[in-house]
Amino acid sequence: MRLGVVCGDGLPVSGLLTSLRYALDLGVRSGVVEFPVITDLGYSWRFDKGFAPDGRGEPYPDWMTPACMELPGDPGAWGRDLLAVRDRVAALDELDAGERATLREEIDRLAAPYEEHFRVMLADVDVVIAMNMTLTDAVPVTLALLRVLDEMFADGHRRGRVVWWDHDLLENYARTADGKRVYPVFPNELTPLPRANGYTYWATLTPAQVTEAAGYPTDAVPMLLPPMVPLSVPDGDLDAHQREFLAQHGVEEDQPVLVVPKRVVPEKGVALTLRLHAATTAEARRRGEPVPVLVVFGSLAEEREHARDMLDLADSLGLGGTVVWADGVPLSSYRDEQGLHLDEIDLLHIARNRSGAVVYTPNVPGVEAASMPPAFAAVAELPCAVSPFKIFASVYPGYSAVMVGPSAGELERAAGELLDMMAAVRKADPVVRRKLANNRDISLRTFGEVHWRAFWQELAEVFR
Fold it and tell me: What pTM did the predictor assign?
């Protein structure tokens, strides 16, 4: 089965894509999925991300073939036009009938080159996975993809399928820019949505998202398809490239490694993580223990101004030498002229070997979907420090974590609890081991392989 992926994230690295990697690996092991996968990561329409619009030069893994659209004209003008459409669709209620008609014409103009692009890109594809494409970041692109998929599969001469896999939906993705919501609260007449037909699946991550999507103005029926975590993380000695990575960043042999699987954007709460780390390093020094090192996953180029603020905050907290800015964790580890760049599995292996932990502290309500980092901690049998974000209790009922609050007292308490739990893991304390085993069971019930294994088998029947 040949796959094509169209992803609305516009990122060279993404938790969304990492979860897809684990699902694709399962599909390959099951004899269903063929590599490589032709992929458009959305560089040509997510100009708000600040990456090069053609995506060339980014670290694509060997199982992915990039399909980058040639922009028709000046990239700056194209980007401004796409972002203007996004903002006007979000503010549709403020437009009169004439302005709406003009907006429709603009959407059609911008959609036309994407129709040509997708016809070529998907010409030999059996299954298309469209990720986060029903958000209104690029209405013309989603409209173009819907039109091309209809040409390809609607008349039945090709046995194709499309999976619209939404990690974020409109109501509960409350991002703002300049004080205004980036997305409308509910789909409007200019929001393209999947439709019920013989070739379309529409999937979301959580039961709450299925409920929200079921109320959208479409006859498509949403289904539950959670993201996957790796079923296990290696234990035992580090490999040579992992030791080299630690040496590259000056990490000493006895220092615990804390990993932070999050992007460096305001909603993800890196500032709270840094303040927790300051409290943790202070407590470790007070106890006479090795100072932990924090590895932050996110790209510093996604929101450059915020990234500069975080670098300045780390300096002001005296964290020099105790924070590694991975600057974008790749889908697969690789080496370039800057050195080694390790993927999530490698970094979790390092944290496990170094008796570390996972830290995840989102601090803005309404922007989290499934929130995978606690599950990553669970499969690696690591402690997890987490802020009490909105959906934590519903996604992880009964999960044992160090809870992090913003006040100085809460941070000091959390730092002490985290160090205690890490020490208990080193000593193989039976109580803590039972808690971590329970965390693993909770996480694999939701994010294990059962949903994707059944889904790959269903798709395999189509092409049998």
Answer: 0.91
